[in-house]
Amino acid sequence: MIKKTFLLGFLFFVIQNNFAQIIRTELPDSTSYWKKTNKIGLDISQITFVNWNAGGNNSISGLINGQFLRNYKKNNIIWDNELIMRYGINKQEGQGARKTDDQIQINSTFGYKKDTISNWYHAGKFNFNTQFANGYAYPNTDLAISKPFAPAYIFLGIGAEYSRKDLDLNVYLSPLTQKTTLVFDQRLANQGAFGVEKAIFDEFGNLIKEGKTVRNETGILVTNQWKKEVYENIILENRISLYTDYIHNFGNIDLDWQLQLGMVVNKYVKANIGTHVLYDDDIKSKVEENGIQVTKGPKVQLKQLLGVGMVYLF
């Protein structure tokens, strides 16, 4: 069932791209109801020290990111689709390359309203999240603490969305959303990583039953996204997602909040300042203590970024 859900979601995203191409082929540009945006960015920073008395380590870091939008709007129907990809690394003198960012995200929302006046839509939303490469609790690189599809998250639900394209604003409210957590790595699944049911061992450490690789939850999902030019060429963008499960610890909220301030230098150069806050009580933190990887309780995860780089729109 889970594999079918993921496959349907993937086909849903692929088919809409083909459908969009068909519409653009059959209709003149003036009557196309699709809006297409492709954005690719590259941020690079580098520090080199030569006979520098104050000391320091040479380093270089890079972040490549892409955002691809395919949005449809006609009369009472909207269909918004988004693919986000990010990958960043840092290399310091004397140590190997370390990952600083890693994300694959697909968002798709279909909405219908009864008339052309209201901004409220009956809506269905699909969201998928995973990563490109293994994650580690540095400096330990022997055992990965996360991998592609370990975890992966799928949200699929129905609700209502308030959408104002003229304000770059939407609010989505869903009383019925299924959250599926995939951990397609048996070692991590046996540990009970990311909230899946962990393996059962006997008193001698022998495996009796393997951990589950899939966990399903049903709950409430609230999301908000808006973007505003707060000053000339300075754009503030906010994304937040709140989820709570009806059965397991109702009221304990999973948080995913991103806030980014973009400053446009010219057509191809842009500076970014941003934060990303995550909290999920099913995700246990891992730390290195005396060369041993130790699992702790859930913690607020915080990522902050500051970068200047190139951006290309097409």
From TrEMBL:
Pfam families: DUF3078. This is DUF3078 domain-containing protein. It comes from Flavobacterium cucumis.
